[in-house]
Design a protein that fits this description.
Blueprint (H helix, E strand, L loop, with lengths): L2 H14 L6 H7 E7 L10 H15 L4 E10 L2 E11 L13 E13 L2 E9 L1 H7 L10
């Protein structure tokens, strides 16, 4: 597949996060032996099952979840994406009860795509900012 075709697979994957019925779509887009090198939750199951658990947690915690793709760059079988998860914190998220706050969670990921399926995933998230938005860590005081 071309780099542009791989980008379309990855773009479709991130839009799945906004879908009500995402389970079958995840199975369609992820290889059965999918490897997540950056699990999003403690004790996350492996493979597509683990991704379903993370998407379900975010959809439950932020029912109005939107994924904003800021940048997408592809070369060979790798696609890098800079994106933001946005939504209102209306359900438990990472063990934090609902705050009603608008959240904007920034991340960068790299996906390896082969034969139209995502096979590997690496992610870096601004976890400090996310925990500050959730109220778990206090915001810094400015002088």
């Amino acid at each position: 597949m071309s780099a542009e075709e791989n980008k379309k697979v990855v773009q479709r994957f991130w839009k799945v996060w906004e879908e009500e019925d995402f389970v079958d779509l995840i199975d369609e887009l992820l290889a059965p032996d999918y490897i997540n090198h950056s699990p999003g939750i403690p004790d996350q199951p492996e493979g597509p099952e683990g991704v379903r658990a993370v998407v379900d947690m975010f959809r439950s915690g932020m029912p109005d979840l939107r994924v904003v793709i800021e940048d997408m760059i592809a070369e060979g079988d790798k696609v890098a994406v800079r994106y933001t998860l946005e939504g209102t914190h209306e359900g438990e998220l990472f063990g934090v009860p609902p705050t009603g706050q608008r959240l904007s969670i920034k991340s960068i990921s790299v996906e390896r795509v082969s034969d139209g399926k995502i096979r590997e995933h690496w992610r870096i998230t601004d976890t400090l900012d996310m925990m500050q938005q959730l109220g778990v860590i206090p915001m810094p005081q400015h002088a």
